[in-house]
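Below is one protein, fold included:
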Amino acid sequence: MVKEELIAEIAKRTSFDKSDVRKMLEAFMSTTRITLSNGENLYLRGFGTWKVEKRAAKKVRNISKNYSFIIPEQMVAVFNPGKRLKSLMKKVEVKEKS
């Protein structure tokens, strides 16, 4: 599902039109970006948590060009699904890629 499909689905399930849903989704995404960029976590009970974590520096190698380099440590946003979402995902069948 892409953003426009999500907007259409939310509009269909609510009494809001697509332009209002688009504004709300943009506001949610903007608030999420600001929250995470300030180093804060975002908790949505029953859905999941976005956490800011430090990813350690690591040495990697490009085998085809035969050289190594270091990726510096960095802060990353990590999503952890909540209990309800985890239990729903256990019921989903794994689909083969074609």
